[in-house]
Each structure stands twice: as C-alpha cells, then as structure tokens.
C-alpha cells in the first residue's frame, strides 16, 4: 500500500540561527537548507555550497550506512543520523524499513543496550537517577520540548531476554519511540524516552569503569515505589494528557506498576498488553490457516512471566468471545515456568500466575511425578496444539518436543517469541524441518524465509511493534484518557483481519501484514481504538469522518518544511501543537 503523498507544507517559524540551528536534530536540514534560508538563518559558510534535496542526502546516507558490515555499526550510524537530522533519519527509514527495522529495533537494539556505555555518543531522552529524586520536576523542565505526548519509560531491569542492563536499557525506549514515528507518523518532537536509573544488579555493569549510569545496586521495595510515584506525579503534572508506555520492567514490577497507575494516568504495559494483543491477533491468523478457531486449541506456554501471562489472559477473553466459559478456556491453557507446569497447589506463585495454574486434581491423573511436570510432559499429556515461548531461553524447544506436538495435530502452531534472536526458543528452519514444513510459525525477532522442498516459507514477526504505534496514534488523535483491555482486544482483531492468511491461497501465507503496510495498519488500528474509546466514554466526541481527519492531521511525515524567521524567541516546533500552528498560519 502506498504512503500518503507529501503535501505542500506550511512554513515553520524558527528562531534558532547558525550552529544552534544545525545542532538541533528536529530542525536541522543540513545541506538541504535553501539559499534564502542560509541567508535568513546565518548559515552562510557553515555548510558546503551545494544545496541538496532530501533524496540526495538520503542517497549519501544509504551509501554510508552500507559501508558498515556489522549490524551494531549500522545501528550506531543510524543513531548518529537521528541525533543529527531526524527528518533525514526517518526519510531513510521510510525508504528501507524492512532492511533497517532489525537494526534500530530487535535484534540489534539488544546488542546496543548491552554495549550502551561503550558506544554512547550524544544525549537523547531523559535519565532520572535515584539521587536526583527530589529534583524530578526540574529535570522534566530541562527537556527542550514543551508538548510531550508519548513517553516510553523503563528501569532497564529486564531488557528483552537479556536481563538487567541498567541505564543501557535506554536503548529500548529510544528504539520503541523511533517506531512510533516510523510506523504511525507520531511527530518525534512530542516523544520522550525516559530511563528511571535506580541502579543495576548486573555485576558486569557494576564493575565496568565505562558504565554510564548510577553505579549502585538497585534500590527496591518502598524506596523504589516512592521514586516511581515521584516520577509519575511530576510527569502527569507537567503533561496531563501524556501517554505513558511501561517497557521492559522485570516480572515482579511490571504488573503491580500497571495496576497502580492505570486508573491515574493514561498508560499501558507493552510487554503485558501490547504483546497479548499482537499474539492473539497472530494466533487468530494462524487458526484461519488451519480452518479452526482459537477455542479449538490447547496451548502450552514456556515462560509464565509478564508476556506469557498477559497473552494467556487475552486468550481466555478471546475463547470466551468464541463461546467457551471462562473455566473451559482456562483449562485449555498450560503455563510452564522454571518450576515446571504451574498447578494450583504450588507455593510462591504470583497472583497473576495463580489464576492461570492448572487444577492439581486434574494433573493427578497424569502418569508423571506431579512435583515437577516438565515442558515435554506438559506438551504430551495436555495433547497441546500450540506452543508459545516467552522464556528468554534459547534452544528450549527441542526436536523431541516439537515432534511430539506434531504427532498430536497436523499443523502445530509454534511461536518462539523471545527476543532478541539470540534468545529464541527454536529457530524457524529447525521447526520446519522437524515438522516436514507443517509448523505454523511466528517469532518475536525477524527471521528470513525458510526454503523447504523448493518452497519459500515466510516467517511472521509477532512483535508488539504491530500494536503500540497505532495505540499511540489513537490516544493523540482521539484524545483518549485511559487505555482499556477492550481497546487492545480491538487492536488484535484489526491485526487479524489485516492478515494475508485467509485472503491468499496456499498452505503457507504470511501470517501478518508486510512492514510496508504497517503505516496504514496503524491508522486502521487507531480508528478502531478511538471508536472503542468513544463507546467507553474515554475519547473526544467525533463522527467517523472527523476521526479520519484527526488521524491524518496528526501524521508527521519526514519532509522538510520551509522555514521563516520567528519574531518570538522560541522555535515553533517546540512551542506549539499542530492546531495552534494552523491558527498562526491563517
Ligand atoms: N515478541 C514480542 O513482542 C515480545 C517478546 N517478549 C520476550 O519474551 C521474553 C520474556 O519476557 P517477559 O515475560 O516480560 O519476562 P519475564 O521475566 O516476566 O518472564 C520470563 C519467564 O520465563 C521463565 N523461564 C525462565 N527459564 C525458563 C524455562 N527454562 N522454562 C520455562 N520458563 C522459564 C522465568 O522464570 C520467567 O517467569 C523475553 O525474551 C522478551 O524479549 C516480551 C515482550 C514482547
Ligand atoms: C518486543 C518487546 O517488547 C520485548 O521483547 O520486550
Ligand atoms: Mg519489551
């Protein structure tokens, strides 16, 4: 599907001049400043003489990008480009999203987080360290932007499947927000990555002389909660309508934080809710390929953490929508964690795990030692048809397990969703070989199509990046004040409907839309989510054409706008929202 054509853009009023203007990544046009702009903004001599178009600049940037062979070096290059000229960065991404998404996002962003201190170049986002806890308001005031609409916040405690990365976890909010812009046209000027630097328990980081964060053991319990409270209060006071995305918080914090704040501020947890939404959407698409419903499946999870339990609960909701009772739905879902299959008589489970534990009475009839029921036994004795990996344990799905699963159904659904690729529970080529090409697969990180019997089988990337950009667009365009489960369920339905599965012939259709279609998909998700929000009294009153209009109005495109000298001393890109800006032009 095509992206919207560039329309003639109204001028921006800009007060910065000279090297200040060139140093501002949101305003910098580099060699694309026109002759008139070079005069008006005191840029003469600060740039080489030739005036270039965005396309010419992108050709050079792509040439430079291709001069790096290692993905991490490509990542460093793209991040530097982002920090120098955001329009050019996003234009380049738009032209090569398929190629560059794995470089700015998973898997390479994992490596970038692990090496964050070593590869650090320029500041981006806000680092709020525990020792600054009494000055958070002042820290927020130091942010250039006056009008933040989306924050992605982490404390770096569970970065992808890589564990505690401390302040290096900042790579994740930066990467996620790049996708808000690349996949849903959110203006980068209104986004803010935030790192709550509460220390790290990663011994390598504590010993690393180059470590960039607060080199201290993590604070915990009441001190931690009080610190997060201070941040939420300050952010909400400064930006009352902001959307806050919690990202990559460790298991014991993720759900409690969501529960504590979801009534107070417009927020969601991407690992719990975004992942549930994309996975249920992808499961629905996989069921279409089988000609079955989700209610017909028996599912085994490896990993009963934030992602696993979030997905499982949304499956329960979906199965109920398909006619099962809640008890019937729960009885079809088996959660396996380090201590084996979760059962109702186990001690020490979190509440969110307890409600997904299988009844101990039922398991008594299995011919196994009930004190530890392994993943392999769970697959076998549950007669599973679906296997989902959210454990961060590479190679956890072995050949015997997968063959057992295949013996129980003709087309097993297998989703090894752990990120980055180095943490995947099984690689797609093995899964396809072990099942003679019958497995229906989706992974969390991107994998190339697999060739089997002269046929190329595409591998869907079941990643929350299909969902959160559209949710952000919905919140901004629809003025939504709170994110509900129904909105995320709606997003997964839109995703399933957009799946090529069921629309195209053949045994192995792509399960998810191509990345080229994601920009449009995000708008469709945004529209549907706004409709749900309206029905729940949580969004602005608008009719359908007004919703479409609001969505289009909020799409930022990476194109240079003409600049005019501002009379006031504040760059318009920071000073005003889109609406105010339009008024000023009239
Ligand atoms: N594809 C996607 O969109 C997403 C993927 N993920 C990935 O899922 C993984 C888990 O994320 P979270 O659930 O947030 O982490 P988490 O830490 O909350 O949960 C992981 C769970 O796996 C369990 N586990 C570890 N070893 C195991 C084993 N051998 N067998 C069974 N369970 C085992 C842990 O005890 C823990 O309960 C990560 O690798 C993450 O990157 C997470 C969110 C989205
Ligand atoms: C994709 C994602 O959010 C994760 O792996 O944590
Ligand atoms: Mg995450």
Can you offer a commentary on this structure?
It is a single chain. With 586 residues, the chain is an alpha/beta fold. Among the domains are: 1-103 and 569-586, Hemocyanin, N-terminal domain, CATH 1.20.1370; 273-465, Rossmann fold. It contains 27 helices and 16 strands. The strands form 4 sheets. Strands 9-8-7-10-11-12-15 form a 7-stranded mixed beta sheet, with helices on both faces. It is globular. It starts with 11 loop residues before the first strand and ends with a helix.
Explain briefly what this protein structure is.
By secondary structure, this protein is of the alpha/beta class. Among the domains are: 1-103 and 569-586, Hemocyanin, N-terminal domain; 273-465, 3-Layer(aba) Sandwich (Rossmann fold), CATH 3.40.50.
List keywords for this structure.
single chain, 586 residues, alpha/beta, Hemocyanin, N-terminal domain, Rossmann fold, seven-stranded mixed β-sheet, five-stranded parallel β-sheet, 45% helix, 10% strand, globular, disordered N terminus, disordered C terminus, binds 1,4-dihydronicotinamide adenine dinucleotide, binds pyruvic acid, binds magnesium ion, EC 1.1.1.38, Malate dehydrogenase, NAD(P)-bd_dom_sf
């Amino acid at each position: 599907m095509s992206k919207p054509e560039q329309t003639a853009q109204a001028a921006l009023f800009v007060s910065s001049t000279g090297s200040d203007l060139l140093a501002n990544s949101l305003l910098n046009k580099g060699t694309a400043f026109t002759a008139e702009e070079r005069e008006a903004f005191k840029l003469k001599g600060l740039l080489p003489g030739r005036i270039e178009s965005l396309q010419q600049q992108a050709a050079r940037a792509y040439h430079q990008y291709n001069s790096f062979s290692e993905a991490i070096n490509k990542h460093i290059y793209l991040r530097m480009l982002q920090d120098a000229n955001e329009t050019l960065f996003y234009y380049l991404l738009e032209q090569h999203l398929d190629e560059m998404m794995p470089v700015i996002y998973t898997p390479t962003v994992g490596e970038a987080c692990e090496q964050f201190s070593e590869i650090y170049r320029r500041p981006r986002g806000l680092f709020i360290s525990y020792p600054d806890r009494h000055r958070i308001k002042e820290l927020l005031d130091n942010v250039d932007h006056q009008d933040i609409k989306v924050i992605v916040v982490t404390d770096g405690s569970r970065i992808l499947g890589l564990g505690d990365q401390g302040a290096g976890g900042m790579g994740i909010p930066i990467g996620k927000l790049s996708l808000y812009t690349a996949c849903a046209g959110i203006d980068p000027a209104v986004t803010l990555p935030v790192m709550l630097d509460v220390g790290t328990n990663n011994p390598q980081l504590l010993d690393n002389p180059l470590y960039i964060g607060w080199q201290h053991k993590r604070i915990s319990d009441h001190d931690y909660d009080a610190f997060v409270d201070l941040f939420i209060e300050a952010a909400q006071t400064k930006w009352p309508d902001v959307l806050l995305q919690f990202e990559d918080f460790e298991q014991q914090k993720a759900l409690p934080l969501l529960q504590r704040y979801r009534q107070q501020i417009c927020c969601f947890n991407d690992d719990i809710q975004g992942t549930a939404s994309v996975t249920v959407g992808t499961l629905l698409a996989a069921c279409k390929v089988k000609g079955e419903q989700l209610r017909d499946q028996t599912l085994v999870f490896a990993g009963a953490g934030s992602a696993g339990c979030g997905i499982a609960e949304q499956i329960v909701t979906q199965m109920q929508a398909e006619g099962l009772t809640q008890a019937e739905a729960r009885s079809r879902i088996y959660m396996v964690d380090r201590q084996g299959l979760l059962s109702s008589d186990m001690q020490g489970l979190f509440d969110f795990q307890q409600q997904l534990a299988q009844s101990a009475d039922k398991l008594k009839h299995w011919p196994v030692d009930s004190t530890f029921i392994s993943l392999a036994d769970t697959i076998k004795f549950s007669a599973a048809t679906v296997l989902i990996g959210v454990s961060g344990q590479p190679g956890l799905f072995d050949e015997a397990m997968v063959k057992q699963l295949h013996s129980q159904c003709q087309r097993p659904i297998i989703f090894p969703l752990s990120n980055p690729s180095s943490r995947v529970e099984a690689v797609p080529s093995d899964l396809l070989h072990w099942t003679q090409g019958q497995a229906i697969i989706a992974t969390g990180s991107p994998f190339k199509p697999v060739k089997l019997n002269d046929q190329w089988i595409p591998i869907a990337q079941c990643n929350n990046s299909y969902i959160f950009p559209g949710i952000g667009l919905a919140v901004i365009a629809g003025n939504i004040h709170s994110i509900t489960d129904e909105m995320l369920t709606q997003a997964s339905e839109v995703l399933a409907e957009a799946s090529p599965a069921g629309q195209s012939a053949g045994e192995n259709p792509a399960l998810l839309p191509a990345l080229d279609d994601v920009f449009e998909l995000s708008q469709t998700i945004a529209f549907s989510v706004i409709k749900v929000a309206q029905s729940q009294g949580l969004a602005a009153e608008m009719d359908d054409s007004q919703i479409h209009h609001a969505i289009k109005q909020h799409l930022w495109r990476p194109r240079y706008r003409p600049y005019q000298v501002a009379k006031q001393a504040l760059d318009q890109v920071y000073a005003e929202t889109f609406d105010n800006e339009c008024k000023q032009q009239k």
